[in-house]
Amino acid sequence: MPRLDESMQSHKIGGSFTFSAARVERLGAAEYTLVTVAVDETGSVQGFSDQLREMLVTAVESCKKSPRSDNLLIRVITFGTQYKNGVNEIHGFKPLGEIDTVSYPTIKPGGSTPLYDACYSAIGSQNVYGKKLDDQDFSCNGIVFIITDGGENASVATAQMVADEAKKSVSGEILESMISVLIGINGSSYSRWLSQFQKDAGLTQYIDAGDATPRKLAKLAAFVSKSVSSQSQALGTGGPSQNISATI
C-alpha cells in the first residue's frame, strides 16, 4: 500500500487485505457513492498496457463532469501476483477533486491473474468503508468495476470469500445499493468462465467488452464514467441505478 498522508486512514478487510480511505471527519457532503476500479496488470496485458492506463485516466477524469462529482469517493487498484495479496492500491477512497490522474503510474504487466483477490479487495473495501460511513450517518451506495483479460489462477482469497462479500454488499444493511461489474477485455477465450464466475459469486453482471482496440477501450472509459454517474444519481431512491448498460 502507498505511504499514507494525514488525510487518509488505513483499514483492514480480512486476513491481511487492507485499503486506505479519506478520514471521515474530512468529508463535507452528507451522501456518497463509493467507486472502485480494479485493472488487470498481469503479463497478458503487455500488448495494450499503455492503452489500459489511458482508459483508466479518461474514466476517472470523465467522472469530474458528472453533476454528482462532489459526491464521489473513488479507489483505484491494479492486480497481479507481483503484488502482496495480488493487489496494488494506486489510491484509496478519496474525493474526486483530490485525485491527480497525471500521477497514475505506468502499468507494468507481470505475473499471473489473482482475480479473486481483486474482487475481494474491491467489494470488501466498499463494505468496510461503507459501514464506517453508515455508522456516522452518511448515506452511501456503491459501484465496482473489475477489468480483466483472463480467469483466476493465483489468488490468496477464495471464490467463497468473494461470494460472501458480494452477498453482504447487496443486503441493503451496509450500502443502500451496490452494483458490481466484471468486464472482460481481450479475453474471449475466458468469456464462458468469467460469465459463470459472475453468477457463482453473485456479482451484478458480466460484460464481454471485446478486443482491446483503442476504440473499445475508449468506449469502456465512457461506460465506466456514465455508470458511475447513473449510480450516484440513484442514491436516495432505495435501489440501484436502472441505467447501467448490459453492453459496451
From TrEMBL:
Gene3D superfamilies: von Willebrand factor, type A domain (3.40.50.410). InterPro entries: vWFA_dom_sf. This is VWFA domain-containing protein.
